[in-house]
């Protein structure tokens, strides 16, 4: 007999993969290393390197932080979604990455609900064939929402696109060179993992027969195999009659 819990082992692995991938996606959203700019003017940018993310721009400088006790200070300036100088891929990345985090969270919640239906005895399992594909769809949607800005920003780096920063950013409009940051690589890895988790949930092999044979043992099909009536105990009145009807009882009495 195939029990319902035995059909969801791969989906449990998919849940673990999806949860880890969602954490990586959330980390990618907050990292600054989407683009790495190399500048030739090291009088302000001491390290000659600036990190351009979707929320802020950061670099190390000993000039901007001269009032600090540290020899160099990390200088960061935020990027807003309504800033006119940023290219279109940055505000799009801000929106889509937040949607990816929300969709990933919803996918994890539905995946946990689906695994609870499969592994634990719940009374209502009629929606299990809907919950598994829905969780997988949210996982795949999370990957799509994150892959679009990741690949778009990576393409901008490959073509050495410029950003006309205002003077307060203390950065040139165009770098000497730029390279893809670690955040984009981490985000692509997370998207690949969450696609695998989503496909595992979309391929869930539950059938109507699995739902029928694996109901709760205390309320389902297995309850008919338990004892439905109490065993009959010998009656006190009949116990004496049975002894008196025994022929050996009369034989022994006559001998006395």
Provide an overview of this structure.
The chain contains seven helices and five strands; from the N terminus they run αββββααβαααα. The protein is of the alpha+beta class and 256 residues long. Strands 4-3-2-1-5 form a five-stranded antiparallel sheet. The longest helix is centred in the middle third of the chain and has 31 residues, at 89-119. It is elongated, with a radius of gyration of 35 Å. Residues 212-230 have low confidence and may be disordered.
Tell me, what's the shape?
Answer: elongated
Listing every helix as H and every strand as E from the N terminus to the C terminus, the arrangement reads: HEEEEHHEHHHH
For the termini, the CA-CA separation is 64 Å
Helix content: 40-55%
Summarize the main sheet.
Answer: 5 strands, antiparallel
Average of per-residue pLDDT values? 80
- Secondary-structure class: alpha+beta
**Individual helix count:** 7
The fraction of residues assigned to DSSP E strands is: 5-15%
Number of strands: 5
* Sheet with the most strands: spatial strand order: 4-3-2-1-5
| Unreliable runs | 212-230
Rg over C-alpha atoms, rounded to the nearest angstrom: 35 Å
Kindly list the characteristics that best describe this protein.
alpha+beta; 5-stranded antiparallel sheet; 256 residues; 7 helices
């Amino acid at each position: 007999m195939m029990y319902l819990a035995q059909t969801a082992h791969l989906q449990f692995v998919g849940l673990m993969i999806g949860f880890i991938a969602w954490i990586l996606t959330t980390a990618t959203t907050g990292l600054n290393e989407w683009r790495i700019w190399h500048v030739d003017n090291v009088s302000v940018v001491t390290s000659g390197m600036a990190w351009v993310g979707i929320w802020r721009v950061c670099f190390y400088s000993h000039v901007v932080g001269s009032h600090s006790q540290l020899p160099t200070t990390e200088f960061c300036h935020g990027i807003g979604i309504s800033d006119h100088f940023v290219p279109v891929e940055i505000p799009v990345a801000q929106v889509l990455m937040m949607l990816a985090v929300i969709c990933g969270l919803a996918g994890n919640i539905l995946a946990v609900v689906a695994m609870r239906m499969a592994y634990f005895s719940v009374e209502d399992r009629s929606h299990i064939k809907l919950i598994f594909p829905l969780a997988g769809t949210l996982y795949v949607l999370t990957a799509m929402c994150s892959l679009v800005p990741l690949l778009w920003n990576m393409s901008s780096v490959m073509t050495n696109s410029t950003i006309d920063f205002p003077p307060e950013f203390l950065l040139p409009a165009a770098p000497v060179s730029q390279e893809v940051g670690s955040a984009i690589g981490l985000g692509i890895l997370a998207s690949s993992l969450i696609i695998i988790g989503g496909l595992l949930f979309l391929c869930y092999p539950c059938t109507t027969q699995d739902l029928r044979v694996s109901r709760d043992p205390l309320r389902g099909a297995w309850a008919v195999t338990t004892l439905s009536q109490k065993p009959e105990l010998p009656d006190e009145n009949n116990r004496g009659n049975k002894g008196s009807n025994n022929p050996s009882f009369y034989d022994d009495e006559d001998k006395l």
